[in-house]
Amino acid sequence: LAHLSNKAIYLLWLGNLRYQCILLCRQYVQKLLSTQEASYLQSLRNLKKKINLLQSSTGKQTTRTINSTCPRLDGPINGRKLGRSHAVGHEVHVLCDPGYELVGSESRVCQESLTWSGQQPTCRDINECASSPCLNGGTCVDEVNQFSCVCAKGWAGLTCQTTAAAATLPAATMGPFVRPSRCTIMQGTTHCTCEPGYTISGRDSNTCTDIDECELFHNGQAGKLCLHACVNTPGGYRCSCPIGYNVTRDGRSCKDIDECATRQNNCTKDQMCINTYGGFQCVRVDCPKIPNATYVKTSPMRCERNPCPVDNKACSQTPNSFSYHYLAVVSNLSAPRVMFRVSALRPIGDTLRFSLLGGRQARRHFTVQRSDRGTGQLMLVDPVQGPATLEAEVEMSELERRVQLGRYITKVTMFVSQYEF
Ligand SMILES: [Ca+2]
Ligand SMILES: [Ca+2]
C-alpha cells in the first residue's frame, strides 16, 4: 500500500464505493419491490373476500325471492284479474265487467314486504239512474248496464217523455193478443223485447203482438200443428178435438173416448153399448119374426131357429140362425179390406156356399169371397165417407149332393165415423 500513490489510493476507494453503492441500490430496489408485491397481494385478497361476500349475499337474496309470494289475490265480483304471478316484484291488474266501474287500485304490485300495494279493488254497478233520465215524475230502475223507467200515471215512453194517450194504441186494440213491449236503453240504443209467443210490432216497437201459430204453420213444411183443429191463444196455441175425442198426451192428436168402458153412455139394460169413433151406439138384438119359423136368443148376439115340425118344408128352408156383429171404423178407410170372416163350426155335408145379401148400398161397398174351403170373408171394396152406417148380410149354406142342409145368416153393421181418425 506504501508503494501506491495517493491518487491511486483515491481511485481505489472510489471504485470500492461505487461497488458498494450498487449493492446497496440493488438491495433497496428489491426491498421496495417485495413490499409493493405484498401490498398488491393483500389488496387482491381483500378484493376476493369482498367479491365472495357480495356473491354469497346476492345468492341468499335470490333464494329468498323464489320462495316468497304475496297472498293469493282473487278477482273482484263482476270483474276479473289479469296476471297470475304473485311473486315479489310482479304486478296484477283488475278489469270490471261492462256496466260496472272500478273502485280501488287498478294495478297492484307484490312488494318486498310480501304485501300488495294499493287498495283492494271492487267493481260497483254503474248507476245509470244517476243522471235522472226518467222525466215527468217517472221512477228510474237501475239495472246492469241499463235502466228502465216506471212512468207516473198519464205518461209513457222510454223516458216517460210522452203522454200516455199519444204513446199507446187505441184501447180497443189492446188486449191479451196485443201487449206493450218492454224497452230499455242500453248504451244509448233502445232495445225492445216481447214475452215468448209475441213479436215486436207498432210504429215505435212499443207493442207486442201474439204470433198466430195456427196461421203461421197452416201450410208449413213442419207439418200441421194439430191433427184436427188449432186454437190460437195469447202467447201460444193449443189443439182441439171434436166432441167424442180427447186430445192425446202429446197435445197434437185426438183419441176416441170409449163411452162404453167409461160409463159415459145412456144405453138401457136391454141394450148393448157399441163404442164407435167419435161416439157410441146403443143396440138391441131382437130375433127376427119370419113366417113359418120361430127364433130364440141363444146368446146376446145370436138367435137360433126352434126345431121345425116334421115334414114342414117351409120351416126347414128358413135360416137356421142369425148372428149379429157390429164394427166401428173410421171414415175413408182404404179398400179393398177384409172386414169379417164367416166359417162353419161343425161342417156337415159336402159343400159350403157363401153369398152377399142386402140392398144396393151393401153391394156398392161390399163383396163376399171364399178364403178357404170352410171360410168366407166380407170385403170392403170401396172407401166409405162417414158419418154413415152400413149393413151387410152374409149367408152361408151347407149342401149335401146339392141338397140344402142349412142356412146361416150373419148380419154385419158397420158404423163409419165422421173423421178419418
Ligand atoms: Ca199465439
Ligand atoms: Ca167412442
From TrEMBL:
InterPro entries: EGF, EGF-like_Ca-bd_dom, EGF-type_Asp/Asn_hydroxyl_site, EGF_Ca-bd_CS, Fibulin_C, Nephronectin_domain, NOTCH1_EGF-like, Sushi/SCR/CCP_sf. CDD domains: CCP, EGF_CA. Residues 125-161 form the EGF-like domain. It is found in: Secreted, Extracellular space, Extracellular matrix. Its main location: secreted. Belongs to the fibulin family. This is Fibulin 7. It comes from Cyclopterus lumpus.
